[in-house]
Amino acid sequence: MKIAFFEIEPWESEYVEYKLGLPVSDLRFTPGKLNVNNLPPHRDAEIISVFVGSKVDVDVIHAFPNLKLITTRSTGFDHIDRQIAGAKEIKLGYVPGYGDNTVAEFAFGLILTLSRKIYDGIDRLRETGRFNYDGLRGFDLKGKTLGVIGAGRIGMHAIKIAKGFGMDVLAYDAFPNEKIAQELGFNYVSLEELLSRSDVITIHVPYLPSTRHLINSENIKKIKKGAILVNTSRGAVAETEALVKALKDGILAGVGLDVLEEEGVIQDEAGFVLYGHPEEHNLRTALANHVLIDTPNVVITPHNAFNTKEAIQRILDTDIENIKSFAEKGEVKYPVPEK
Asked: CA-to-CA distance for 237 and 231, rounded, in angstroms?
């Protein structure tokens, strides 16, 4: 089988090549993203493996006439047109879990950066040489309430970390597990109650139609005044314009984001100007992203929460399992959920 990998580093290519044990002629590795404006010259692949920066839409899928399997080396799969793939009977694989601790640890990095004004202190010292703590007073996490939106694998690890800090925890999840709640010592509540009672809010839900703008211009008003919000899941889970207004109105004291709505535009603004179609993007949201980037009490990182050596290796191992399973049995070990 011809297999094409995109958004892959040289060391990852070597690892995949060794683990798959296939002839080099059957494998192609491309460091760049796959999208309609960046199609490879050879399109005979029966399997393609991508990461979150690629956009596997209808035009890309039609560009690979022999395509039988699309795997994504990520938990999210909203960058793949599942409807078109299904219509063409192309199998879809993903990575259901790779960084439960990895992403949760990063979320707490953002929380601590905001609660203790760590970035502000570093930036001040570097830019002005002022070695003093005036204006850098933060707050303890101990005794505060953490609201976890999405108490799945990553959310559960965040809860465990919060307990280590001595925090009280509230969780909102579509599928509550009361046994685990009792074991870890937290309570499930409605989303509205979580927003109104939490001092710190961290989001760990997948991006689905039902979670788009889960935090929005209406319910963001219910957030406890002075809370901080962190999102390491998907940008579109939190409405960007609502975040901007909540910061301006003093509802939120700080925001930490590892993901953005329309982050593809931010990643490649020149490409968007040259090739993008305005109807495909919300330009108002893209502008709001720049407002957030320039806001002092906002910390934004470039979709980096997953990025540890250990997590990447777990991702690659799962992707390889999906490919091997398909090659041997015609089925993917970890198929993308239908809903």
From this structure: 8
In angstroms, the CA 242 to CA 248 distance is 10
Q: Is 263 a catalytic residue?
A: yes
What structural domains and CATH numbers belong to the chain?
3-98+309-329 (3.40.50.720), 100-300 (3.40.50.720)
In the three-class reduction of DSSP (H, G, I as helix; E, B as strand; rest coil), residue 126 is classed as helix
Which tokens is 112 given? 């601590």
Identify the pLDDT of residue 275. 45
Structure tokens, 86? 């299904």
pLDDT in tens, 84-117: 999 999 999 999 988 899 999 999 999 999 999 9
The residue type of 228 is: I
* Buried/exposed code over 181-198 (b: 16+ C-beta within 10 A; e: otherwise): beebebebbeeeebbbbb
12 burial type by CB count under 10 A (0-12 exposed, 13-18 middle, 19+ buried):
buried
Among candidate residues 19, 75, 103, the one with its CA nearest the CA of residue 317: 19
pTM score over 0.90: no
Active-site residue, from 234, 261, 262, 314? 234
**Residue whose structure tokens are 């709640």:** 181
The amino acid at 13: S
In this structure, the chain runs to a length of 339
Instruction: Please say if 127 is a catalytic residue.
Output: no
Sign, CA torsion 292/297/301/307: negative
- Strands (E) in the chain, as ranges, are 3-6, 27-30, 47-50, 69-72, 91-93, 145-149, 168-172, 187-188, 200-203, 227-231, 252-257, 298-300
